Amino acid sequence: MLSGDIPPNQTIYVKNLNEKVKKDELKRSLYCLFSQYGRILDIIALKTPKLRGQAWVCFSEVTAASNAVRQMQNFPFYEKPMRIQYAKTKSDCIAKEEGSFVPREKKKKQEEKAEKKRYTEEPKPSSVPNGTHGASNGGPTPSFRPGSNSQEAAAPNNILFIENLPYETTGRMLEMLFEQYPGFKEVRLIDAKPGIAFVDFEDDIQSSMAMQALQGFKITPQNPMVINFAKK
């Protein structure tokens, strides 16, 4: 069913996800990818055989969900194009906020409740080496800063230096990630040095926003992006 057949709502249904990715890592990556569109209330991804490769992302606003559906359709996520549509039914998190929550069939409700509880009780950022959901729902606050201590940090400027990219990364893949942020200008790959790239923005404020949002984002499970300001 196409997303156009379902009325727009705050929750999007994402399928064709890489089933080999661990649930916690999948949620972190989805949060990092979709939080640029608005405040996220919840992310549901279950381990049951019938629900592998699928997830639900619940936004606080319909406009945020609509932008995510439109702009991230077919985005290459862990080497597979995401298929996105609006969720068929209202998410529990939305129903609770509106005061219209009605318990579902008992077994399904208990399963979702247990999954949500484990999600909210995950270790704090200090114990999660490869990223986090962010302490607040206002935007991502990734703790992954692999390059911060390995070299002297460059002064903030409009150019980002990206490292630890998988060799198969293309310019278009990076453009789809970074063009969502204001001030994006271009991506520059270095043919002689695979695994690195430069991303240009209009100014250092805009480049800083993109860095904060995408720091540690994994294009593949083995490659969290390392983002620093480029040295001039």
TrEMBL record:
RRM domain sequence ranges: 10-89, 158-232
SUPFAM superfamilies according to UniProt: RNA-binding domain, RBD (SSF54928)
Cross-referenced Gene3D superfamilies: 3.30.70.330
KW Lyase (keyword) present: no
Polar residues bias locations: 127-152
Gene Ontology terms: biological process: mRNA processing; RNA splicing
Protein name: RRM domain-containing protein
Places the protein is found: Nucleus
Region called Disordered, residue ranges: 98-152
Keyword Ribonucleoprotein: yes
